[in-house]
Amino acid sequence: MPDRPIPGAAVDLEPSSRPGVPMERAPHPMAGARMPIRPQHSDVRVFKHKGRAGFPPVFGTAQPPRGLSGLLRKVAYGYPDHWARHWMILLLADRVDVWEHRLAKVAPWAVPTAGVLAFTGVVWRKWARA
Amino acid sequence: MRALTYQGPFRVRVENKPDPRLEHPQDVILKVTRAAICGSDLHLLHGLVPDTRVGHTFGHEFTGVVEELGSEVTQLRKGDRVVVPFNISCGTCFYCQRGLTASCENSNPSSDVACGVYGYSHTTGGYDGGQAEYVRVPFADVGPLKIPDGMEDEEALFLGDILPTGYMGAEMGEIKGGETVVVFGAGPVGLFAMRSAWLMGAGRVIAVDCVQYRLDFAERYAKVETVNFREVDDIVLYLKDLFDGRGPDVCIDAVGMEAEGSVGQRVLGLGLKLEAGAPTVLTWCIDTVRKGGNVSIVGVYGPPWNLMPIGTAMNKGLTLRMNQCNVRRYMTHLLQHIREGRIDAKGIITHRFPLEDAPKAYHLFAQKQDGCVKCVLTPGHA
After folding, report:
1. Looking at the structure, do residues B129 and B172 belong to the same domain, yes or no?
2. How far apart, in whole angstroms, are the C-alpha atoms of residue B35 and residue B354?
3. At residue A130, does pLDDT exceed 80?
4. Residue A124 lies in a domain
5. Which domain holds residue A113?
6. B36 pLDDT exceeds 60?
7. How far is B270 from B309, CA to CA, in rounded Å?
8. N or C: where does chain A have the smaller number of CB atoms within 10 Å of the terminal CB?
């Protein structure tokens, strides 16, 4: 081993100089913290897993649940997060979500195209029989 | 605004989405100046984190300028430059009061496994992240750290995640001076864990990886010995032999759920999803470390379970320590290390991209191409 591998080697040798020692410190509010915390209001649907007693005062509102994937997520959050089915249903919902978005993306051109093809097929069969 | 969005496993793109708005009196809106891509973002990209919704914006490591303030914010002013911890922590709950900000109970309704995290799925609260032009930052008087005048954003950027995470990885190894330390993973977190192990007085530090350019980088950047596990028959036996047949005193897992090295674990975890990823490195740590030694886990694993040799750990009398990093308590200390030249945080950046090229950056980073160690994104206005 080099004597001094990097500048400042062993500068934090003393455990008490390390910010995370001890891991749990005597309780006191952090600098800048404000109590009580006013609850956030939102019209967006946000799920809380069933193992949690109350809703936290602050939460994210990105990508609200919707469609079939949203229904699956609702089912998943009906179970506490120490149940495997909570996570497995969420993974399934994620895959359904992707397919919902893909279908929604192709629908504007795929539906009319399918209609035109179907109409053309009917006309062709009638013409062929005639 | 322009923002990176998730489109399904292995697909992201940059698109327009509504600007974030103040949703709580303790919020601020930041104009993002730099956003890093973290190794743990790849778990999201690969569809391994449950409740990752299409349209979600990733990014939990960013700096920015305060653009808009909530009515209860008193410590920040418009125009302040800040770096933001990835944990969203209230500063007042049972856990925050004890320094365990990664366990804050006031920011995540979705799960008890973690607190709120920016851009890390709805499992961590459903907050959009910083790989965008603007981002909402809750509890703004508690988390963000002002970047000192004269310091570049990129010098402070990694105080938000990987630098404190690497430091905490070494700290949880309980180094008292002279110990032998093996760090699995020569990515950004591993590199900072190696440097931190030296700062804490380690006697010998060895990096293990299978990507040779990253091992070469670790040799230069962290002054460590290196082992490419693909070039030895059995990495556990090889490392034990290096330390008198006993193994090192401390092993640090800086890899997490997408480890290479075991076909079986990858098939079970990443292919069939029968466990939460591939805990190969965790298994190696437990098998390699000496009896009575410490295993420190900062690589990310997800719920609900993993196949790991807990019986071996029990019988060897190991101390296993792990946590998402309680970032805020480390920021000031590590800022001092950066300013005094003990850690060159910016020195690990190998690639910079405009935000518009974020999909390309993800691809490069995930495929480990072009000598990529760390990618940083710059929004158009920055």
Report:
1. no
2. 10
3. no
4. yes
5. 65-130
6. yes
7. 19
8. C
Residue of A nearest to B329 (CA): A19
Domain assignment of residue A11, yes or no: no
Do B140 and B18 share a structural domain?
yes
Tally of CA atoms within 13 A in the half-sphere of B266 that contains its CB: 6
A-chain residue closest to B12, CA distance: A98
Which CATH number is B59's domain given? 3.90.180.10
Domain count, chain A: 1
Full-model pTM: 0.95
Q: Which of A33, A51, A76 lies nearest to residue B91, judging by beta carbons? A: A33
Residues B311 and B334 in one domain: no
Is the residue at A56 inside a domain?
no
- Indicate if B11 and B117 belong to the same structural domain: yes
- Domain that includes residue B104, residue range: 2-161+326-378
In a shared domain, residues B14 and B154: yes
Q: Are B105 and B34 members of one domain?
A: yes
Percent of chain B predicted with pLDDT > 90: 98
B204, two tokens: 């010998």
Nearest CA in chain B to A24: B98
For B148-176, how does the pLDDT look when each residue is reduced to its tens digit (9 = 90+)? Answer: 999 999 999 999 999 999 999 999 999 99
Backbone angles phi, psi at B227, to 5 degrees: -135, 130
Q: Is a pLDDT exceeding 90 seen at residue A111? A: no
pLDDT computed for residue A3 by the predictor? 64
> Do both B37 and B123 map to the same domain?
yes
Q: Do A13 and B24 touch (CB under 8 A)?
A: no
* Of A62, A68, A76, the residue nearest A99 (C-alpha): A68
**Mean pLDDT of the B114-139 span:** 97
* Residues of chain A positioned with their CB less than 8 A from the CB of B196: 12
Q: What pLDDT score was predicted for residue B30? A: 98
Number of structural domains in chain B: 2
Distance in Å, alpha carbon of B54 to nearest chain A alpha carbon:
6
Our CA-based measurement puts residue B320 at a distance from the nearest CA of chain A, in whole angstroms, of 14
List the single residue in B88, B172, B337 with the smallest CB-CB distance to A8. B337
ipTM (interface pTM)? 0.93
Q: Which residues in chain A have their CB less than 8 angstroms from residue B224's CB?
A: 5
pLDDT band at A53 (very low <50, low <70, confident <90, very high): confident
For the cut 70, the answer to whether the pLDDT of residue A2 exceeds it is no
Residue A36's φ and ψ, nearest 5 degrees, are: -75, 160
Q: Residue B291 sits in a domain of what CATH number?
A: 3.40.50.720
